[in-house]
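User: What would this chain look like folded?
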Amino acid sequence: MRRPTPDPIGPGQESVWEYPRPPSIDQSDEHVVVTFAGVAIAETHGALRVLETSHAPVYYLPPDDVHLEFLSAIERRTVCEFKGVAAYADVIVGDRRAAAACWWYPEPVPGYEALAGWIAFYPSKMERVTVDGERVQPVGGDFYGSWITSRVVGPFKGGPGTQGW
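Assistant: Here's the prediction, encoded as C-alpha cells.
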C-alpha cells in the first residue's frame, strides 16, 4: 500500500507524518480531562504524549491524576512491538461500564520506562475527553486509542483501509 499524502499543516498544528518511528514520548502541560457517566475520572496537566508516524497522539495520564477506584483490571493483554505488554481495565461508574476502556504498560521495554503505570483511555469509550477544553475525536476503528484534536493533521492510521500504512 502506498503512503497517503499528508494533509497541509496550518498554524499551530503538527503533522502525524512528521512523528518518528519508533515512537517518541513528549511531556505535555495541556489540561486533559476524561469523563465517564458524568464523573471526571481523570484530570491532569502532566500527561505524556506518545508520538508515532501516521498515528494521532496517545495521551498517557499519571496514575496519581486518575481516580483508580473507577478502574477494574481485566485479563486482556496485548503486545506493542515498541512498548511491550499492555494491561487493560474496564471503567465502571455506578451501573455503567466501559469494557477495556483503558490500558497501561506495567513493565515497558527499555526506552519507554517513563510510561510505566501511566494510563491511556480510548476516547471512543468515554463520555467526553478534552485537551485544553477541546473535545477529542477518536481515530477510526477500534484498535488504536489515538486522540485527534485540531492541533494535529493526518490522515490518521486506524480507520478502514489504513492497516498497511
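The chain has a mean pLDDT of 95. If you want, I can go into more detail on any region.
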